[in-house]
Amino acid sequence: MKFEALSLSNIQQYIRYLERALSEEPDMMLVEEVNENAIKERLCDPFFRNKKSILAIVNDEVVGRIEYHFYGCLQDGYRMAYVDWVYVLKSHRHHGVAQRLFQEFEKDCLKQHIDQYYLIRATNDNAERFYKNFTNAELSEQPVLRKTINGIKHE
Question: Do 10 and 4 touch, CB atoms closer than 8 A?
C-alpha cells in the first residue's frame, strides 16, 4: 500500500474510487453522482487550497482516503486540524487501511505543529470499534450547530 496526496496527476484514480464508493454504498456518500468536472475545478480553486486528501493506493487503485484541513486561533496560537472525511472501500476494510491513513495524516499534523485534531465521527458499530482503538483520544458527544446559509444543495 502506498499513500499519495490528491493531485491532478492521480485525480482519475480518485474519481474511479468515488464512483465505486457511490455504487457500493450510496447511503454513505454525500452526493448522488460524481461530477468529475466539478471535482477537478475544486482541486484548482483557491478556496479549497487548504484542503488536503491522502489517498491509500493498492495496485494502482485508490481504496481509501482521508480528507482534512488545518486552522488555528490567532489569540492563543493553538493549531488544529479537522478531519472532514474518512472512507475505505468495503472490500479493503479490516485490513489496516484506515489506521494507516490516520498515521499518514498524523505525520502531516506533526510537520505542521498541530496541537489537536478532531472529527465528527460516524456512530455505526464498525466506526465505534475503530475509534475506540485510538490511543490518547477521547470520544465525546458534543452538541453541534449546523446552519445552511444559502440553501443551495451541493454536490
Answer: yes
